[in-house]
Design a protein that fits this description.
mainly beta, four-stranded antiparallel beta sheet, 52% strand, globular
């Protein structure tokens, strides 16, 4: 059983693999809980063939529901898929392939702030695991180019992303974006926790900071 719950006011969005919710292979359904005693069935955001809907994550902003997941195309390639709902999960728009490359893309994470949608994941397209980032400034209708945040020769994996606070750019408030991940790049070969931040809504990121910086192995930020 795999369940993710997002609470927004009195409504809880539940996304998971439960035997009574599965409609095709490993596809998952979204259910909204209006109170503690009732479940109303919503649309199936993955709605794909078998072996779909793995590593699902959901984010909610107002009546908008955003879902990302890993879709296994074959044994040598997997991609990060995205769908959104603008009606509390009653229906979902078209599926977007955010990674869309020949490598293996896994472990997606998603964050939203106003009309901005941010997605990170682990990707081995360059031959080693890297942390890739993509953003939308129009509620997920379109996404910009993919950015390699880690960009090193080590093993970077397991990102987490958060949006908190805003910076003033002279004309408007821009979200601050924070990303952490596990990285095995240091000369002694141990795993450390790396951090990167953006104060311009993900348009650019500052230098990478090693938060753990110790001789041991640091995992799962």
């Amino acid at each position: 059983m795999y369940v993710v719950i997002i609470i927004l006011g009195k409504v809880r969005y539940v996304l998971g693999i439960l035997s009574s919710w599965v409609s095709s292979g490993q596809s998952a359904s979204v259910k909204a809980v209006a109170d503690s005693s009732s479940l109303s069935t919503k649309a199936n955001p993955t709605n794909t063939i078998t072996e779909a809907g793995q590593q699902k994550k959901v984010a909610v902003s107002g009546s908008d529901v955003y879902v990302v997941w890993v879709h296994d195309i074959n044994f040598t390639n997997s991609d990060i898929f995205f769908r959104k709902s603008t009606d509390d999960g009653n229906s979902f728009g078209s599926t977007k392939n955010l990674s869309n490359n020949a490598g293996i893309s896994v472990l997606p994470r998603i964050a939203v702030a106003r009309n901005n949608v941010y997605v990170v994941w682990t990707d081995n397209t360059r031959g080693n695991n890297e942390i890739f980032f993509k953003k939308s400034t129009d509620d997920g209708n379109s996404f910009g180019s993919t950015v390699n945040l880690s960009r090193n020769l080590g093993d970077s994996r397991g990102p987490e992303i958060s949006v908190a606070g805003y910076s003033w750019n002279g004309t408007s408030l821009i979200p601050n974006v924070y990303v952490v991940w596990q990285d095995k790049t240091t000369p002694n070969g141990n795993s450390d926790i790396f951090f990167k931040k953006s104060t311009d809504g993900g348009n650019s990121f500052g230098s990478t900071v090693n938060l753990s910086r110790n001789p041991g192995d640091s995992y799962a930020p």
